[in-house]
Specification:
The structure is a single chain. The chain has one domain. The strands form two sheets. Strands 3-2-1-4-5-8 form a six-stranded mixed sheet, with helices on one face. It has a two-stranded antiparallel sheet with strand order 6-7. It is α/β, with parallel strands linked by helices. The longest helix is centred in the middle third of the chain and has 15 residues. It is built from five helices and eight strands; from the N terminus they run ββααααβαβββββ.
Amino acid sequence: MNVIRCTVVDERGAVSFIVHADALSALTAACSTDPPSLEGLLEGVEPYYHNLREHVLNGLAIFEERNARGNYQAIHRALRLCAPHDHPVFRVVDDFTREVSLRPVKAGVVIFNLRARRIIQIVNTYQEIRRTGRACVFDGSSLTDTVYNYRLPKDWALVP
């Protein structure tokens, strides 16, 4: 299973989720538009990788419902009991969730730091993210024959 952890950092904090590694190109393409927020990034992903926006935002709604401010027992329990590739979407709210948000899952972990305009490939065994690229559109059930191209602006850094 080629899934990977993605953690997105914006002005409001960080959100971590598990996705098929095919979504990396779509996330990178969305970064090329300089999205100011997680929501903006997910909006930019939608034409290239359908349903990721819905998956992440629905997961965040569940996170908010089950984790009252300051009481994060529910997410701690889920992150301890679930297999890493089954982890729910979560906000980074404390040291434990921060540490989990940086842990590789199957194909790795990639940080999309929108504030710093930086993509950090902590571990990525699937396919190296490059400044320019092309990929097939995912229609919500499978990859299609439709191809899109992207080019990151010069002020975006790729690490490593």
